[in-house]
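A quick aside before the break. I want you to see a complete sequence-to-structure record at least once, exactly as it would be stored in a machine-readable document. Don't worry about memorizing anything.
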Amino acid sequence: MKTLILSLAAAASLTAGGAAVAQRGAGEIERRIDYLQHQIDRGTGDGSLNRREGWRARAALRDVSDMERRYLRDGYLTGDERADLNRRLDMVVHQVRFDRRDGDNPYEGRRYGYNTYRR
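That is the input. The structure line, written in tokens, reads:
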């Protein structure tokens, strides 16, 4: 009887630990999504991302978030699922970084009152 109780307690503790690891993995993805959302908002706010670039980046983040939700239907993320989400987020990071630095901001370096007309 004692061995049965001990084995059930051990199994329960192992299961709880696995759930914590799965939740931690999901939390990591959520933090990355939140950080990227903040970067996109900053980029659209300061003009380094134009409207189309911001829309495209937000759509890519929604896709990753939807994929995460699908993966979490069974309650946890497998290693392959986590790797897939991180790979997708890496692609969004690279695209946002490229778009913010591509120099297509027409007002870059200029403030209110800047005269573009020749005298």
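Two observations worth writing down. The chain has three helices and no strands. Residues 27-100 form one domain. We'll return to this after the break.
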